[in-house]
Amino acid sequence: MLKAVRGRYKNGTVELFEKPGISEGDVIITFINPEDSENIDLQARGIPPEEARNLRNRLRTFEDDWNAEGMELYDKL
User: Fold this and answer.
1) From residue 20, how far is each of 12, 23, 42, 46 by CA, in Å?
2) Can you give the residue ranges of every domain in the chain?
3) Which pTM value belongs to this model?
4) Which tens digits make up the pLDDT trace of 2-32?
5) Distance (Å, rounded) from C-alpha 19 to C-alpha 16?
6) Are the C-beta atoms of residues 56 and 50 closer than 8 Å to each other?
7) DSSP assignment of the chain, as one string?
8) pLDDT at 49 > cutoff 70
9) Residue 43 — very low, low, confident or very high, per pLDDT cuts 50/70/90?
10) How far apart are CA 57 and CA 22, in angstroms?
11) Exposure pattern of 47-59 as b/e (b: 16+ CB <10 Å)?
């Protein structure tokens, strides 16, 4: 059985964002290229440039809240 759990690698350690539900086991770590996760082709998903700009401008007011310490807990919901 494979179980995928997101986490973050930093300074030689891996921090899991959620408990995997097992006490021990072998793992495969796959690093996500940060450029790939930030450069999403919105047009391929049916979102034209003008709509993307409009959405980004409307959501910009929430940026400080999204990036506040502790908010990563909401990513699990």
Assistant:
1) 20, 8, 32, 34
2) 7-76
3) 0.40
4) 788 888 888 899 888 888 888 888 988 888 7
5) 7
6) no
7) ------EEEETTEEEESS--S-S-------PPPHHHHH---TGGGT--HHHHHHHHHHHGGGHHHHTSTTGGGGGG-
8) yes
9) confident
10) 42
11) eeeeeeeeeeeee
